[in-house]
Amino acid sequence: MRFLPTRIHGVLDYGVGFILMVSPWLFGFNYGGSETWVPFVLGLGAIVYSIFTDYELGRIKRVKMSTHLTLDLLSGVFLLASPWIFGFVDVVYLPHVLFGLLEILVSLTTQTRPSYAMLKERNI
Predict the structure, then answer these.
(1) Environment class of residue 30 by beta-carbon count within 10 Å: exposed (0-12), middle (13-18) or buried (19+)?
(2) Is residue 114 over pLDDT 70?
(3) How far is residue 101 from each of residues 47, 65, 70, 107, measured CA to CA in Å?
(4) How many CA atoms lie within 13 A of 46 on its CB side?
(5) With contact defined as beta carbons under 8 Å apart, do 6 and 65 qualify?
(6) Apex CA 66: angle with CA 64 and CA 71, to 5°?
């Protein structure tokens, strides 16, 4: 069931993207390896593709919301699995798993069209 408006999703995109980028330093796992750079790169990527998404908080509006949500889902799965993929599960895993689950949950519950598109379809 998709109940989360795209406007709220946009706020989460920029906020969570930033928190992902600073999380290694914020939560004390900035050892310079994959445990540090995976969330940093995924957070930066989320901010970049959010700027290009066709929704209320997008600026350039070239990426469809459905594509954005697919990127969020893939990013969440990758982030969740990254401690095992890169072998740093013995060092840190909880922030990666929790943020990965959050990304997956938000991607599956966000509406696929921004409110202005739905209003346009209804001729309002």
Answers:
(1) middle
(2) yes
(3) 18, 20, 14, 10
(4) 31
(5) yes
(6) 95
The size of the chain, in residues, is: 124
Q: What is the pLDDT of residues 22-50, one digit of tens each?
A: 999 999 999 999 999 999 999 999 999 99
Q: Which 3 state secondary structure label does DSSP give 116?
A: helix
Sign for the pseudo-dihedral over CA of 92, 110, 107, 70:
negative
Contact 13, 102 (CB under 8 A): no
Phi-psi region of 61 (alpha: psi -120 to 50; beta: other; left: phi over 0): left
**Measured between alpha carbons, how far is residue 104 from residues 70, 79, 114, 122 in Å?**
9, 10, 19, 30
